[in-house]
Amino acid sequence: xxxxxxxxxxxxDDPLAAIDYCYEQGWTDGLPVVPPAVKRVEEMxxxxxxxxxxxxxxxxxTGLECTVHSAxxxxxxxxxxxxYFPVVVAALEAMNEPAFNFHGSTASTGGSAPLLIVSGPxxxxxxxxxDVNLFGPGNRANNTIGRAIRLILMNxxxxxxGLSDKSTQxxxxxxxxxxxxxxxxxPWPLLVEGLDYPEGVSSVTVFAGGGFCNVENHGGxxxxxxxxxxxxAMASYSCITLGQSVVVxxxxxxxxxxxAGWSKRRVQEFLFExxxxxxxGMESVGKxxxxxxxxxxxxxxxxxxxEGMLHCGLSPDDILVVMGGGDAxxxxxxxxxxxxxxxSLMQSxxxxxxxxxxx
Length: 359
What we know:
Strand content: 5-15%
Strand order of the largest sheet: 4-3-5-12
Shape: globular
Radius of gyration: 21 Å
């Protein structure tokens, strides 16, 4: 049952009893949550200027809506500080865009998890991690922001594992999947700089991602050697789809690539051309039928098939490339699309700014 204000007032005062109460109500992701005391929820909402009843996102299949108040309750339970709340709000608004396919990405057997990529000055302002152990534990902002989105999916939109969330196996990103783009020593324009937002604004990009794939290459010393390793992971039979994908390059790999004069665009183009499989190979494992591709993707996909190859996505633009992680180590990562077709497109929103509100 979704949370509501009346039930929040019923939470016991004793901390341990309150945690047990949250378990009994089915409000957790399997881990203990911070009981959503009214004062904490009110402090959270102070970082969002709109009224508590403002709807941030709606589930197209169930009709359930997430208000500012509901989002704040779950952000408290996830362990967020109030200053993290604008990131949660922006991520929900991004997921609410029709092209993201909110229902399919949260209910499918594919095991999708919303990957949040934060870019811009807010990373330092709230202490997000863009460095060592980027995808791992240890940073409150990264992990609680990602967890807040998961709790909202479960508690507000009722995407319950085994009931409405039908992930065949799922993956750990379904607890929390939130990272920050690294700005220090980054030779390329930041993700937020490619968006049409005012100077100084930060952004969050949301991607319906499958399971994380580590790409190790400690010996490659040219862009081609490093990126061919990444492309090989992207070109596995299981990952070739016409959906989008995310590549997070480690600083060590970026240095090799950038020192050779490669731009981010050239990286995207190389990965797109290299991460491909012959149509015959895809047919041999049952992952290609011409009719399905023509119906779903039209002339663009048909042209790729006519060349005898299937690529990751329809163009280099479908591969998002960012830098993140610690200085040392030849480890980058690839996050594939959750869908075998083009069922979800990543969406970006500014954080804490209403672009459409005017002066």
